[in-house]
Design goal:
NAD(P)-bd_dom; ComplexI_NDUFA9_subunit; 7-stranded parallel beta sheet; Rossmann fold; SDR family oxidoreductase; NAD(P)-bd_dom_sf; 38% helix; binds NADP nicotinamide-adenine-dinucleotide phosphate
């Protein structure tokens, strides 16, 4: 089965691609580094539709790195509308989106775009599936990567239940090759963790001497990061790989000498 993966070069996207290949399917990656900018507006739709010819599904795991609600909304509106329009034109019957547990309950900052993405997909009239996940183990690395090596990192105070991106990628690949499910449930990791502590442990594991300052963010969104809004409910599917187990696979940064 031919399946397009928007954002197939990203943290979770590359696992979706691998899982599809391992199951004998044919992934088609859409990303800027592969020559496709999904924020190109109506001008981009024809080229995307041509790439989608013969696809049974599109998995959207494209993302933008921002804390701005308006930037996030602009990105997810543009990518979602471009994909949905191109899918209609190419006759692709199934759109799969990955969202975040708690984003619709705290639709501010980056989550404002995720809440909008969910709404656009649900109202699209096409066959759709939405899987919601918690933060990936790799999110600690993404937060750490925002600072200079060896320097102080400012990290939001946050309670999370991180899951392996590989397990989320495999779940998305499985959903994409089946019938549209609508709400496809939630997926989370096996343990509740304190995110600044995970960033500290990640930095130690890669041999980066940087310290971490946990900062409680203000407002309803900041509270949601801390108060359990982002944690899985009782019906969620739980992944098996712990953050500790994932950390053993992380490579130390080679020393400068
Ligand atoms: N990170 C987490 O902890 C987490 C947790 C739950 C859900 N999610 C969701 O999972 C999805 C993927 O997140 P991620 O962390 O894996 O993202 P990521 O590593 O930042 O990767 C983003 C992907 O999007 C592509 N992309 C960015 N801008 C694009 C554009 N204008 N046109 C086409 N492709 C573009 C990038 O490739 P190019 O740079 O080559 O364009 C890359 O392949 C997002 O929807 C996110 O909300 C993330």
């Amino acid at each position: 089965m031919r399946v397009a993966v928007a954002g197939g070069t990203g943290v979770v996207g590359r696992h979706v691609v691998t899982a599809l290949q391992q199951a004998g399917h044919e992934p088609v990656v859409l990303s800027r580094s592969r020559g496709v900018d999904l924020t190109g507006g109506p001008a981009a739709v024809d080229a995307v539709a041509k790439t989608l010819a013969g696809c049974a599904a599109v998995v959207d795991v494209a993302s933008v790195e921002t804390l701005s609600g308006s930037v996030s909304k602009r990105f997810f509106r543009s990518v979602t509308q471009t994909l949905l329009t191109a899918e209609r034109s190419a006759g692709v019957p199934h759109h799969v989106a990955l969202s975040i547990i708690g984003a619709a309950e705290a639709p501010a900052a980056y989550y404002a775009g995720k809440a909008l993405q969910e709404q656009l997909v649900e109202e699209s009239g096409t066959g759709w599936s939405i899987l919601r996940a918690t933060q990936f183990h790799e999110f600690a690395a993404q937060l750490a990567g925002r600072g200079k090596p060896g320097r102080l990192r400012i990290v939001p105070a946050m309670t999370s239940q991180p899951v392996a991106a590989a397990e989320v990628g495999a779940a998305l690949a499985g959903i994409a090759v089946g019938e549209p499910r609508g709400r496809a449930g939630d997926i989370a990791g096996p343990r509740v963790e304190d995110m600044p502590t995970l960033v500290r442990r990640y930095l130690a594991a890669i041999g980066d001497g940087g310290r971490v300052l946990a900062v409680p963010l203000p407002g309803r969104w900041g509270r949601a990061l801390r108060d359990g809004t982002l944690l899985a409910g009782p019906a969620a599917r739980l992944g098996t790989q712990t953050f500790d187990a994932w950390l053993t696979e992380v490579e130390r940064v080679p020393s400068a000498e």
